[in-house]
Amino acid sequence: MQRQSILFVLLKLITQNRGRRPRSNERGNHERRRFREKAVLMSVCGSHTRSSGRGYIFISAAMVFVGVQMFLAPVHGQDLNAWLDAIDDENPRVIAARAKWRAAEAMINQIAGLPDPMIGVDMMRDTSTRFSDYAALEYMVEQELPWFGRRGMARDVALLEAEAMGYEMLEVRRQVRATIVAATWDLWAARQSLEVAHEQVRLTEALAGSVRSRLEAGQAAQSDWLRVKIEAERLLNDAVTMERDVEVALARLNTQLNADPDTPRSTDIMPPLPEWNLSLQQLKDDTRQYSGILMATFWREMARDLARKSARLEQRPSLSFVVKARQFRESGSIEEYDTGVAMNFPWLWRGKYQARRAEAEADYRMASADLEAETSETLFEIQELYTEAESRLRTMRLYEEKILPSVRSMAESAREAYPAGMMSAMEMIDAQRMTLESEMIYLKEQAAYASAYAKLMAIAQPWTPDEFDFGLPLHEGGRSDEK
Fold this sequence. Notes:
By secondary structure, the protein is an alpha+beta fold. It has twelve helices and four strands; from the N terminus they run αααααββααααββααα. The chain has helices spanning 2-17, 30-44, 54-72, 80-90, 92-112, 150-216, 222-256, 280-290, 292-313, 350-417, 425-460, 465-470; strands spanning 118-124, 136-145, 319-328, 336-343. Strands 1-2-3-4 form a four-stranded antiparallel beta sheet, with no helix packed on it. The protein is elongated and about 130 Å long. It starts with a helix and ends in a 13-residue tail after the last helix.
């Protein structure tokens, strides 16, 4: 579909550059341009055309060449699913979050390791101080061993911190995916709205022709002609604004895909709107269990709880084992050994250890408060998004089932009634304007519903297979709200 769109645009550019008669109003000949484009497209496709134009033969040959090039060239993302699959390797936020998680995992073995051993050699002298004059060499190896349980507890704290980082990474990934879904539907709605606006411009131009004919026949007032012209200019200006909105929506989507803002993206094939079979209570229950940010905050609270227990062990002494071997100068082997054990004395400066325990306790209280606040805010966000999605869906169904059929029928009746003099031009304009506004609202409600639903699923959706493949950190039993 994307390649066909590009071919059609190229056809349009070629036909516009061919020789043609000067026109006083470029916008006023929309139908003529569409007819010419259709004729050229029929020529390229082999339909029946007049054989007198060499330009069509040239265009057909050029389009065959361009079509081959388009077929061989890579396409920037075929559909929404392809774009979602590409974010793990292309979106900078997801890449950074995953690297941060990997860095936290790498810290586990660093913290669990023993301190580096100390090795050295002493040159023992009796009276001389010359470097080459010594009596013996004394080799030394020293290894410090933290008190029992300190390394294991520090490793468990680092493991819990890494788990929290993993869930934060999944939260970033889910939010990016929801943002891409919302941006794609916004782009689709902007393009569909632009098509509706162009159709309204065409209908208004047709109305202008009808008013002009009645004015020349003395059956319409000058004010009707002026009203139609004003309405046509307003619609043209709105169409230009919508074209800019399409460009902004495309740039927003490409930003999430880490691509150039002008990279073409097709929205011709969109997934169906998700069905609404959710309950607010079920969403809240799933949020407590599957929300990435809540799980990250929960694991971080457990890490802070274990860290305050680890702080109590820091005042336990560390042992240092020393082994020395002595080799005399005239001897070819080691003849004497010395061994020793030493430990630090952490009970003298008790103030710094008390401060460390106080810091760990404050960190735990902060983590507990963060978990409570994050839970309340996330559950409120769920309720807010649930209300928005339900409202958007209700409005969308109202327009689909009742409002749109009525306004379309009213506009069609108005177009038939005005030439017969049974309706004024102002009433005709109002009918077309109501139809345009209703179509716009319907399109925007569809995009808004899809966006709200995607954001809901980013928070409360159970773990998916691709998240396990991506590296979901998961423990047996999940999260328990009971401490």
